[in-house]
Amino acid sequence: MDFFRRTWELYRDGFRNMTWGRPLIWLILLKLFILFAILRVFFFKPAMSGLTEEQKSEVVGENLTKNNRTDTLNL
Question: Mind listing the pLDDT tens digit for each residue in 52-69?
Fold first, then answer.
């Protein structure tokens, strides 16, 4: 736990002493928000939306047990 506290203090003090520290932090937070919130909503829609629980379990079971021939080497 001490490692995480020291790491946090290193970055906090480093950004605090920089001229552009605060704008950089806000830019990083904005970038993370865009990556995880906005792109998730518009581009990564759930693949099994609209299926019942039984259908979802069947799809997962089929994908886990199917023999994917591209994964094996045929020598």
Answer: 999 989 988 888 887 665
Could you tell me if 15 and 21 are in contact, meaning their C-beta atoms sit under 8 angstroms apart?
Answer: yes
Q: Judge whether 58 lies within some domain.
A: yes
- What count of other Cβ atoms lies within 10 Å of the Cβ of residue 53? 8
Say whether pTM exceeds 0.70. Answer: no
Q: How many structural domains is the chain composed of?
A: 1
Give residues with Cβ within 8 angstroms of 18, minimum separation 6.
Answer: 24
Does some domain include residue 42? yes
pLDDT at 68: 61
